[in-house]
Design goal:
Helices cover about 30% and strands about 25% of the residues. It is globular. The strands form 5 sheets. Strands 1, 2, 10, 11, 12, 13 and 21 form a 7-stranded mixed beta sheet that branches. Strands 8-7-16-17-18-15-19 form a 7-stranded mixed beta sheet, covered by helices on one side. It has 2 domains: about 190 residues, FAD/NAD(P)-binding domain, CATH 3.50.50; about 210 residues, Polyamine Oxidase, Chain A, domain 2. It is of the alpha+beta class and about 475 residues long. It binds flavin-adenine dinucleotide. Flavin-adenine dinucleotide (FAD) binds next to helix 3, strand 5, strand 15 and helix 16.
């Protein structure tokens, strides 16, 4: 009696041989899909994992909600000038992993230059040009150097992948302080304006739990700031994901919605993709979407998983490329508030508006600590821009958005008391529980290179 193709694949899977031998057209053919690892989310973590696992002979399928790979990394190409404008990820620390990932696809990297126009400070609530707390370059340089020493001496464990935290005690207590309190205890207030611009999408910087700020402003990131050694892709960072998309081919199911997930002896997912329902059977699941409860719709979460994912609070972040009539070329407007500590702009609000590579187009960044509908954010941005009436800039009008992108939920965090109660040990203990592994910014921090390093560390478990 001859075995059918599906039975052969099933026999390989149940013999623990994996489906490295499975034909690569399974996802394209419309039938059930058998794979070693099903990856939910094709952003930084999911795409990196898919490539790395395929390189090692495993059969993967990526289930991606949108019509493209890259997640927060996306390049807008201006049809008029041809300019490539990164509306998400722009810079990467210079390390072998970053060079190898771009190098594999021949996507060129060059040194990022931050030389640009001097910022003009505007209170977007009133439109007035105002003075802002601005440390001198010497004060900032000294604060950054001290900050690096503090990271190295007091918190070296933050360099490890994931959240490997100390037991409750003085060190953990320091990390659970609001960041504003932490900087003033160390006399590092000079960091604030710079960190405010890097920590977009993290909510109020002064109230943010110090752990999250320090994990994000890592030694690699601050070292790159000090040395001016960040890399960027001159043709747009999105080229990395365009190339990955070609390589992964039919192993990515785009515009897909997960309807049902059952985990027991292996993982079975029902997915609605391109108007059809597909069944995916995998030995393991790698979850890389933001781990907030709505992302798990249709999953068979148990009480332990649900309690952990329900603890995450979300921050919201939007970026846009806008046409703004009356905006002088080469001008950058930074939102500040004369009546707040260190003049940090309150949220919701614009972070900054600045020029990009396309004449007549401007980058706009907007943040909020609570949910806002996109239409409301667009209206608020337009009203804020129309209000600007500083000595040098006035009479602006937002005439349209070339692209508008909602990055929410962006930073997902838990309350300090949950961290003190061992939240991250419990989260870490979920790795492998019910054949499910996790990667992405919530399990590391919002940095592509750091996310890739975390995936590298997970590979042995996924390959075992
Ligand atoms: C504006 C902006 C600028 C940034 N700049 C930099 C920078 O310069 N340098 C840097 O290193 N980092 C930067 N970051 C941070 C960096 O982008 C993130 O750390 C990184 O993208 C996180 O990777 P991830 O895989 O966790 O999430 P993402 O890359 O967002 O990937 C998640 C993927 O999951 C998909 N998804 C979500 N829900 C589901 C679901 N239910 N089912 C299926 N798929 C789903 C999403 O569509 C997305 O493709 C920036 C982020 C933003 C928003």
């Amino acid at each position: 009696m001859g075995l059918g193709r599906r039975q052969v694949l099933g026999a390989f899977a149940s013999a623990g041989l994996g489906s490295a031998f499975a034909p690569r057209d399974a996802a394209a053919s419309g039938g059930d899909i058998q794979c070693d690892v099903c990856i939910v989310g094709g952003g930084a973590a999911g795409t990196y994992a898919a490539l790395a696992l395929r390189d090692r002979g495993l059969r993967v399928v990526v289930v991606e909600r949108s019509d493209r790979l890259g997640g927060h990394c996306e390049t807008y190409r201006d049809p008029t000038s041809g300019a490539a404008i990164d509306i998400g990820v722009i810079v990467f620390p210079d390390n072998p992993l970053v060079r190898a990932h771009f190098g594999r696809f021949g996507v060129p990297l060059s040194n990022a230059s931050f030389a640009g126009p001097a910022s003009q400070f505007v209170d977007f609530r009133t439109g007035q040009g105002v003075a802002a707390f601005q440390p001198t370059p010497l004060e900032l340089g000294t604060a950054l150097a001290t900050y690096l020493q503090v990271l190295e001496i007091r918190y070296p464990f933050l360099e490890q992948n994931g959240f490997q935290l100390p037991e409750p005690g003085p060190i953990l207590d320091e990390l659970l302080l609001p960041f504003g309190q932490w900087v003033s205890q160390l006399g590092l207030e000079a960091l604030l304006p710079t960190f405010f611009l890097y920590e977009q999408g993290f909510g109020s910087l002064l109230d943010a739990t110090t752990l999250y700020v320090l994990k994000n402003m890592s030694r690699a990131v601050v070292g790159a700031v000090l040395q001016g050694s960040f890399l960027m892709a001159p043709g747009g960072a999105g080229a990395l994901y365009d190339a990955a998309s070609v390589e992964l081919g039919a192993d990515v199911l785009y515009q897909s919605e997960i309807c049902h997930v059952e985990r027991g002896n292996g993982v079975c997912l029902r997915v609605r993709s391109a108007g059809a329902e597909r069944t995916i059977r995998a030995a393991r699941l790698l979850f890389t979407a933001p781990p907030v409860l709505p992302s798990f719709a249709g999953f068979d979460l148990d009480g332990r998983e649900r309690a952990l994912f329900a603890s995450f609070q979300r921050h919201h972040y939007w970026t846009a490329v806008a046409q703004i009539a009356g905006m002088p070329p080469g001008v950058s407007l930074v939102n500040v508030a004369p009546d707040t500590p260190f003049n940090l702009a309150p949220l919701p609000g614009i972070y900054s508006i600045g020029p990009n590579a396309a004449p007549g187009l401007f980058d706009v960044k907007y943040g909020s600590e609570h949910f806002l509908p996109d239409l409301q954010v667009k209206r608020r941005i337009a009203a804020d821009i129309a209000r600007v009436a500083s000595d040098q800039v006035s009479g602006l009008e937002l005439t349209g958005f070339a692209i508008f992108k909602n990055h929410s939920p962006y930073s997902v965090v838990v309350a300090p008391e949950r961290i003190r109660d061992g939240f991250y040990s419990s989260l870490q203990a979920l790795q492998g529980y019910r054949q499910t592994y996790y990667a992405g910014a919530a399990f590391q921090t919002h940095s592509s290179a750091a996310v890739w390093a975390h995936v590298e560390e997970l590979l042995p478990a996924l390959l075992a």
